[in-house]
Amino acid sequence: MKRLLLIASIVLATLRMQAQEVSIGVLVPGTEQGYTPVQSNMLQSSMEKLCTSHGITVENIPDGFFLYPTIAVVSDEVAEGGMRNINTMKAEVTLSVRRIGGDVVATVSKTLSGSGYSKSQATTSLIQHLNIADPVFDRFISDAQNAIVGYYQSQCNRIMTQADQHAATHDYRAAIAKLCQIPSIAPCFASVSGKMSEYYTLYQTQLCSSIKMEVEAAMATHDYEAAITLLSEIDPSSQCYTYAVDQFRKIEKEVARLEKRDWEFKMRQYNDAVATERQLISACRDVAKAYYSATPTIHYTQVIR
């Protein structure tokens, strides 16, 4: 499991500009809805590209917002001709954004056509004609972003209270993940960033004890590669940094004496505020992903109900 030793000292003004923007999960129909794995993968890829091309982070947060497509077949015909029959299909493809159990906050529809030697091939062809560069999606994404920011602004106090409750039980990872839901462009983010810094500091303290134990265990068995991997993850601002440097110096002497190998200890350095903030945001996202990866999987049918 990756260890995250995070930075406590931050510049709030820079953090506001660099922090995580709007995040949307992506769910697509699968075999339960009659689509092949290839077709589902094509839809997944298109939806993710649509998000990232508009600066949106794709993250499936259980109580977050989801982008999902629905395909309503308008006509499905078979034309005889030549050696093989041709299937032609026309469908209305609708993209929507909503929270599970909530209202749709943005929607857009396109009528597409596809053809092939079977219904499945016609469906694949139709999906391939979904052009995410179509300008019609720009307004759709803009509407979704505005609605999501508005939602989190209205729920900001509630979310911060939930983060405080997690922190009260020393579950700082959950507290960080909760706060990272709030987009940096939400007006309340200035208040959120202070709590984020506080919980990162406390999370560092928890991780220092854990990482020291694992380094000592690796050193005891002369597993220097494992020890260096652990030590190189320690941030220069961490209270473990001096320990990391001391341990590496010990490893360097042992390796030079026993194995005559050239080892390089790549300690991370952050010489300006911007680099510091970028590391903080990256760590925040990693914490959230690790936290939510242990939650139950969200299924397509849950979001379209």
What keywords describe this structure?
single chain; 305 residues; alpha/beta; 2 domains; elongated; disordered N terminus
| Helix content percent band | 40-55%
Q: What is the distance, rounded to the nearest whole angstrom, between the alpha carbons of the first and last residues?
A: 35 Å
Average pLDDT, rounded to a whole number, is: 83
Summing up helix and strand content along with how strands pair, one would put the structural category as: alpha/beta
| Sheet with the most strands, sense and barrel status | 5 strands, mixed
Total helical elements: 11
The poorly predicted ranges are 1-20
User: How many E strands?
Assistant: 5
Range of strand content? 15-25%
Question: What is the helix/strand order?
Answer: HEHEEEEHHHHHHHHH
Strand order within the widest sheet? 2-1-3-4-5
Supply Rg: 25 Å
Q: Number of domains in the coordinates?
A: 2
Coarse shape: elongated
The oligomeric status of these chains comes to single chain
Description:
The chain is of the alpha/beta class and 305 residues long. The protein has 2 domains: 146 residues, no CATH class; 132 residues, Double Stranded RNA Binding Domain (2-Layer Sandwich), CATH 3.30.160. The protein is 51% helix and 16% strand. It contains 11 helices and 5 strands. Helix 7 packs antiparallel against helix 8 and helix 8 runs antiparallel to helix 9. The longest helix has 32 residues. The chain is elongated, with a radius of gyration of 25 Å.
